[in-house]
Amino acid sequence: MSVSVTVHRGTAEIGGSCIEIRSAAGERLILDAGKPLDAPQDATDLLPRSLDPNSDATVLICHPHQDHWGLINELPLSWPVMTGVASAKLIAITARLARQPLNRELGTWKSRGVFQAGSFRITPFLTDHSGFDAYMLLVEVDGRRILYSGDFRLHGRKSDLVQRLMQNPPRDLDMLILEGTNLGTQKPTITEAQLEDQFVDLAKRTPGRLFVCWSGQNIDRTVTLYRAAKRSGRTLAIDLYTAEVLETVAEGTKLPRRGFDNLTVVLTAGLRRHYIQHGREDFIDRMVEHGIGAAKLEGSNHIVMVRDGLVRDYRAKGVTPTTADAFSFSMWSGYLAKPSETLSWFRSAGSHIQHLHTSGHASPTDLRAFAKAMNAAVILPVHGSNWDIEQEGFERVLRLADAEVYSLPV
Fold first, then answer.
1. If residue 381 lies in a helix (H) or strand (E), which one and from where to where?
2. Phi/psi of residue 78, each to 5°?
3. In this prediction, what percent of the chain has a pLDDT beyond 90?
4. Residue 41 has what pLDDT?
5. Domain 4-185+360-407, what architecture?
6. Which residue in 282, 285, 242, 298 sits closest to 265, CA to CA?
7. How far are the Cα atoms of 1, 5, 189, 255, 365 from residue 216, in angstroms, in the given order?
8. Which regions of the chain are under pLDDT 50?
9. Which of 4, 33, 120, 307 has the most neighbouring CB atoms within 10 Å?
10. For residue 339, what pLDDT is reported?
11. Integer Cα distance of 36 and 110 in angstroms
12. CATH topology of domain 192-355
């Protein structure tokens, strides 16, 4: 037998990632156990049918976005699951907030710290992505070398990590498993620094408050907005969840957190109740010292975090947008196709609305440059819905269907 690769889910869709590498002796390594993006929050029994739960496997999670880890609780309890140190903490926070706490402890790794999982030798490479603590994974087994790109980009605040890997790539790769999220799209891929400038400009043009919807786990975006707040003479007002994310990962870094100038935490009733129910009164107490109630947003000129759940708490405390305020949606524009209480709130108020965002994934041009630099014997496309219409510029592409087994040449 030879080393084989199976994409259980992800050859023709974004998210829900699950890839298996099997050694010649039958040992199994699973890369990601992601929840499909279109799955309801409370949906269960979502593991790919082709993934055999009856034989041992080790699972590696490349970063803390649910489309890569959201099915951990459906995996056999006997399977070890590993991820980055910060990723493990962020996954636990998100799982608890979703009222679906993890059913196991996660093992962890550090960037470029080589480790073994049976006969598999794994080297994780910290990368640039909108998800904090994201990794590419080099897997070596039976003389074969496979690089899994995970999700990455070259225009974020950690782009030098990818550039250095491209300048000194792993040698003699037998396969590059490559994400293709942005192929066939026109998603914005400006740098976070350029996005920061856009937010500064919008803040300076806005006489009132600037409300922004972004993901609390997109720490690059939080930094962008914090820097924009400082440059425009404002304060960034974040929610308790984002404050916990920052407190969890910021130690030993320059990342903003409680106690920083130009940063405050809005203590809303809903999230406050959640933390108290989970015995986190100590966390609430720490945040109170550097926080404000939602009512204090009235009359301020803050840059304010907002989303549907926060809107309800803001309304309850008398917060009302006006024509002097602005709202920016700083996430993928496709989410705006869904009904949004937040968007309706600002539309009905006559506030200025502007979409300011940059993608968490590499541009088509950068994907091609990365693939060329890796120079793998074969490219296995995953995590993309347009691979079949935009393969030009990629060499030696192997298109598989979900559940199809590919044996590497002996």
1. strand 379-382
2. -80, -10
3. 93
4. 84
5. 4-Layer Sandwich (3.60)
6. 242
7. 46, 34, 20, 13, 28
8. none
9. 33
10. 78
11. 27
12. Rossmann fold (3.40.50)
- Rounded Cα distance between 253 and 76, Å, is 36
Tell me the one-letter amino acid at 223: V
Q: Is there a contact between 361 and 15 (Cβ–Cβ < 8 Å)? A: no
Token reading at 181: 């999220």
User: How many CA atoms within 13 Å lie on the side-chain side of 150?
Assistant: 34
SS3 237: strand
Asked whether the beta carbons of 326 and 351 are under 8 A apart, the reply is yes
| pLDDT computed for residue 61 by the predictor | 99
Nearest-angstrom CA–CA distance, 143 and 146:
10
The contacts of residue 344 (CB under 8 Å, 6+ apart) are none
pLDDT at 31: 99
Residue-range domain boundaries for the chain: 4-185+360-407, 192-355
State the residue for tokens 């024509």: 323
**CA-to-CA separations, 45 to 70, 73, 77, in angstroms, rounded:** 12, 10, 15
Q: Dump pLDDT digits (tens) for 45-91.
A: 999 999 999 999 999 999 999 999 999 999 999 999 999 999 999 99
* Cβ atoms of residues 35 and 15 within 8 Å: yes
What was the pLDDT predicted at 21?
Answer: 99
- Write the pLDDT tens digit of every residue in 342-380: 999 999 999 999 999 999 999 999 999 999 999 999 999
- Say how far apart CA 387 and CA 405 lie, in whole Å: 19
Q: Do domains 4-185+360-407 and 192-355 have the same CATH topology?
A: no
Q: What are phi and psi of 121, to 5 degrees?
A: -105, 120
Q: Cβ neighbours of residue 361 under 8 Å, at least 6 residues apart? A: 129, 130, 151, 152, 153, 179, 181, 182, 187
Q: Which helix (H) or strand (E) holds 85?
A: helix 85-97
